[in-house]
Structures are given as C-alpha cells and as structure tokens.
Amino acid sequence: MKETRGTTRQEKALETKDKIYEVAMKKFITKGLEHTSISEICREAGVSIGSFYTHFENKEGVIYETFRRADLNFERFLQAERYKQNLYELILEYMEYYVQFVLTYDFEFIRRFYNTGNHYFVRGKRPMQDVLKTILKNRQPKLNEYYVKNTDDVVDMLFMTSRGIIFHWCLKEQGFDLQEVSRKQIEMVLKSVLLELE
After folding, report:
1. 129 has pLDDT over 80
2. CB contact set of 136 (below 8 Å; sequence gap of 6+)
3. φ and ψ at 88, to 5 degrees?
C-alpha cells in the first residue's frame, strides 16, 4: 500500500522508501531477516546505505513498517459509514479485515512473521487495536464479566484468538481455511463475552 504523495522531493523520498521496503521484504521472505544484510538490500534496491538509514533505523525497522502500514489500513476501516452497523457483525467484519490483510502477504513471510520472538505484536498504542477499542467504548456493550472486565479485555481476547489461529495455520502449513476457522472462533469469543448480541 503506497502512501499519499506530496511534493516532488517528498514523492522521491517515499518512492525510495517503498523500493527499499519491497526489496527487503522479498529478501526476508526468501532468506529470512537474520540472513539478509543491509548492504545486500541496498545493492538490489539501487540505493546507498545512507538512504537505507534515512528511512529505517535497522532491518527490524523494515518489519515495523509492515505494522505501520497495517495500522494505516485499520484507521481507514472507520472511514466507511459503520456506526449504524450491528456491533456483533461489525466486530466480525473487523476481525475478517485483519485476516484478509494478513493474507495479502506471501505465506513464507507470514510463517516467519508469526513467531514468539516478534514483539511488535504487543507494542502499545497500535491503531490496529485502538480503532476496535474506540468502537467498543462508543457502543458500551454489556459484557460477561466472567470472561472480561472491560472493552480493552475484549480487544485483547479477540487479537489473542486471531493470532493463535494464524500461528496454528502456519504450523499446519495452510492446512485449513483460515478465514472460515477464524470467523467461527471469533463468533465463539463474541458469543461468550457479549451479553447482548445486537
């Protein structure tokens, strides 16, 4: 997903960043993060090492860019008229949006990305989670306090469930329909935590 372009200088900088990002991601998919060097990325992207460090702090910064782009995607989720939508269906659609976004990536990348060493998943203040927290706080649903204490707990449970399903799907080498299983599991969570299904 390319970002909105500004002036010619800004456009050129964003094009360089995109090029580095795309080359790096291809390398990470085929060789892995640990076996890919910054000089190799720069050589293939046709940029200087200085250009790399202008846009990214290190190789992990390229991975963080994936999360930043995902977060931008989720901020756009609310641009559509959704506030009148049934909450249960809205949350299901949101979590399906998450799975669809994951599936835009090559399986090998997803498999490498979903691992216990990836701490980007639990970084605070992520729009991916914050957008859903905002939806729930605005709607103030009645919750089953046996399972959750507040709407933040609901969001945590939904993302723990989704990540677990994706991780299991990777372990099973795509051995089941990720979208179908994800929807059923999320439905199960929602039916447990929401006392009133609109």
Report:
1. yes
2. 87, 91, 151, 154, 155
3. -60, -50
